[in-house]
Amino acid sequence: MSESAKPHHPIPQAKGEKSHGNDFSYVGIDAILEQMRRKAMKQGFELNIMVVGQSGLGKSTLMNTLFKSKVSRKSAQPNPEERIPKTIEIKSISHDIEEKGVRMKLTVIDTPGFGDQINNENCWQPIMKFINDQYETYLQEEININRKKRIPDSRVHCCIYFIPATGHCLRPLDVEFMRRLSKVVNIVPVIAKADTLTLEERDFFKQTIREELRANGIDVYPQKEFDEDAEDRIINDKIREMIPFAVVGSDQEYQVNGKKILGRKTKWGTIEVENIAHCEFAYLRDLLIRTHMQNIKDITGSIHYETYRVRRLNESNEQQQQQPRIVQANGVAAQHEALTHEM
Amino acid sequence: MASTDVARQPDNGVRPLSLAGHVGFDSLPDQLVNKSTYQGFCFNILCIGETGIGKSTLMDTLFNTNFENFESSHFEPQVKLRAQTYDLQESNVRLRLTVVNTVGFGDQMNKQESYQPVVDYIDRQFESYLQEELKIKRSLHNYHDSRVHACLYFISPSGHSLKSLDLVTMKKLDSKVNIIPVIAKADTISKSELHKFKIKIMSELVSNGVQIYQFPLDDETVAKVNTTMNGHLPFAVVGSTEEVSVGNKMVKARQYPWGVVQVENENHCDFIKLREMLICVNMEDLREQTHTRHYELYRRCKLEEMGFKDTDPECKPVSLQQTYEAKRQEFLVELQKREDEMRQMFVQRVKEKEAELKEAERELQSRFEQLKRLHADEKAALEEKKRLLDDDQSSFGKRRAAAQLLQAQSLTANGKKDKDRKNSGFM
């Protein structure tokens, strides 16, 4: 009972046109693209975006502008008693949106209270824990024996980090957070409320930020090491020249030159959100949604999740080796402890 | 998760929302398709059928190339499988196609075990995928998926019914792979016979509980054509790589003295339908069914067989890791026990051998003693004999000496007598 697999015999194939039946050389292999598209449309897509930043930086507004609908509710002003939040909350809201037959389940994960406390040490911990919990849920489902046909994907695909437009440099909080989280999730840093910066100030600020990121070894999306080929690298290099994007968000429409556009109206002019001369919102939107969304999800799934999985499985291995024949309850507790450990 | 889970269901916490403008995520399917095109696709077909039934020719015709095939003999002692992988390209789509053929199927006198190599091959592919999936450091997106996506079962065009070998084989395979039965060499059956033959085959399959692959009906765009095609199963196909001129075109056909059977003519055979269904319409669904149904079933059975469960007797979720560790401990303990046993056995054997050897030595020793005694006895006897002989000799010597003396004495006595006589005579 033997078999021999002779790999790759590239046999020149007549390139057929799309006319069925008349052209003999047409086999129909390229019809698989259409089949794949149909399947994707039927299944729908899932996207989980997390927004992190201090309160008042315009996170909810930006989300609403990106998805042109009320995906986030702006937080109400807390009473004086509640003004100092004790902990960081993680709020996750899902919506079903549809465009031209493509259905997507969008989940926006908000982190109110981040950076708002007086002592902000360890403010990344709840967020890190949340992200790892999502990976854990997915892992548990994946190693089940009876598992679902399509494992529900609640992993955070992209984390948008809002940098306040100080114009100087990154704050220690920013550096700490991004340094830790860029290892577990795709981080896209944006300069919030960029309408307070002039163009020169903006360029200077961006350059400073880029240098600081490089100096601290922070790899934000798109990461250099995951470029697939030369073409990719060219496109991504252009993007890397532009990050962090200086964005302005708005969900109010105004009339400018006879067109209705989203913008912010001030006494000295109207800032058009989608005008690339005014701010870089359009670049952010194109990156996140129109061109790189699939790539973001892929990197989350095949790299960040796999890293987590390797770490987790190795951890359990070591634990079991150190304490053999441990009672089940203890074993579970020990594993939980290892999880909440920060990296 | 079926498609309805992503639909508008306000009760599971997901609210539907309408968009006020163009966001742009309708390009998402395009992004997905582009990525898949970049990676390439892979498709694996298994062809089961008797030797000479036309499997290789049909593959050549389907994919419009000449896969290097050679004819197999009819004298194979066992069914074997031959897998060959090819890289095909059409426009910008790259396909890695693996064609697996059975060699010697149906040729043996005793066909009871004919299906086993096929089942083993399919299981082996599932197993290697499972192994990759369970690895700690894995690379699933780079993994060359060798699981069988479609199985074309070639039915002999007898015109009567399925052979029992066909039924048995298909029954064994229907839960492991998508089976698409085809009637081979369909140009030997007339139209009316073919119709009856098809009905007979389908009813036999149904009555024997064989689950063949049904083209999927849940997508409206293809539901209609799939329903029609489901009614035409099994497809009656003719394969040919030779071209014959018909009218003013060159078509793939088989030329007979009484006419030309055109492969791509729907009135002549169902080849076009097979190509439509297998490649143009349902290739992705075949791959998906293999992954989500057949592979999951295999995985579930395999893991349960190894003793893993999702919940332990108290109905608390048991992690795979813990069970795996427990199993591993068990296995190590078992190994240790066996090692000890073996060691003991070895020691035992050594002792036994030693005893045996000692026994042999003792025996040898006793024999040596015995022989020595015998030897000593003989020696003593010989000594005795020698002594006797010596005694004899000495007594003989003495007697001889005595005799000689007597003789000498008698001589002198005689001499004296003579002398006396002489002396007396003188006087």
Per-chain topology:
The complex is a heterodimer of chains A (343) and B (427).
Chain A: H1 31-43, E1 45-52, H2 59-67, E2 91-99, E3 102-110, H3 124-142, E4 158-163, H4 172-181, E5 186-191, H5 199-215, H6 230-242, E6 245-246, E7 253-256, E8 259-266, E9 269-272, H7 281-291, H8 293-322, H9 328-340
Helix pairs in contact in A: 7-8, 8-9
Chain B: E1 14-16, H1 28-39, E2 41-48, H2 55-63, E3 80-90, E4 93-103, H3 115-134, E5 150-155, H4 164-173, E6 179-183, H5 191-207, H6 220-232, E7 235-236, E8 243-246, E9 249-256, E10 259-262, H7 271-281, H8 283-305, H9 320-426
Parallel strand pairs in B: 2-4, 2-5, 5-6, 6-7
Antiparallel strand pairs in B: 3-4, 8-9, 9-10
Helix pairs in contact in B: 7-8
GO molecular function, one term (chain A): GTP binding
Main location (chain A): cytoplasm
Domain Septin-type G (chain A): 43-315
In short:
Chain A contains 9 helices and 9 strands.
Question: Describe it for me?
Answer:
Chain B: One of its GO terms (molecular function) is GTP binding. The complex is a heterodimer of chains A (343) and B (427). Chain A is an alpha/beta fold and 343 residues long. Chain A has helices at 31-43, 59-67, 124-142, 172-181, 199-215, 230-242, 281-291, 293-322, 328-340, and strands at residues 45-52, 91-99, 102-110, 158-163, 186-191, 245-246, 253-256, 259-266, 269-272. Chain A has one domain (39-72, 84-319): Rossmann fold. In chain A, strands 2-3-1-4-5-6 form a 6-stranded mixed sheet, with helices on both faces. In chain A, strands 7-8-9 form a 3-stranded antiparallel sheet, with no helix packed on it. In chain A, α7 (281-291) packs across α8. In chain A, 36% of the residues are buried. Chain B has 2 domains: 38-306, P-loop containing nucleotide triphosphate hydrolases (Rossmann fold); 318-403. Chain B is built from 9 helices and 10 strands. Chain B has a 6-stranded mixed sheet with strand order 3-4-2-5-6-7, with helices on both faces. In chain B, strands 8-9-10 form a 3-stranded antiparallel sheet, with no helix packed on it. In chain B, a hairpin with a 2-residue loop joins β3 and β4 (93-103). In chain B, α7 crosses α8 (283-305). The interface between A and B is large, with 94 and 105 residues.
